[in-house]
Amino acid sequence: MSAKKQEAVDTVEFDEIMDAPIEWRKFGIEDYIVFFIFWILAADIFLQFFTRYVMNSSLAWTEEIARYLLIAVGFVGSIMCVRKNSHIMVEFLYRFIPATVGRILVHFIDLGRIGFFGILSWICFRLAGKTHQMMVSIDFPKSAMYYMISVCFVGMTIRSVQVAMRHVRQGGSKISLEHARHTTENK
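Given the sequence above, the corresponding structure tokens read:
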């Protein structure tokens, strides 16, 4: 196929993908929350840029609020990553272990992740209760940020339980099942 024909095919496929209706049900509540927080962050940064470089007199609170909004985007986005099971993982190991061991390892990893996020949510909740400082530029308690992070860890724990249940139903994770298929095909 010539390069021009391939480009035409790619363009048609791209147009079909872009014109396809959006499936709103495949998004979780955390997707909408992080989207909303992100646009508040964008407005805050625009306000900071506008007041600093156009008005030549920046608002003091915009930088601190942007910092906390960026933290919120990171932690709420992590709930989304747990739901999609898209956090960084080492799949190199699955290539060198038997498929049965890989499936068992997936379940132990799921249990470890549930415990890890559960413990972090408890630690963060306790830290928030001990924090009595106020933010520097506005009169708002820093503990609210820690409570928000604790809620995000609870969300990650809940999503981790859902991922673990999905792995139990499927017999393993996508990566362990792919490597199991790969090893049985090569025998």
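The chain has six helices and no strands. Try to locate this feature in the token string yourself.
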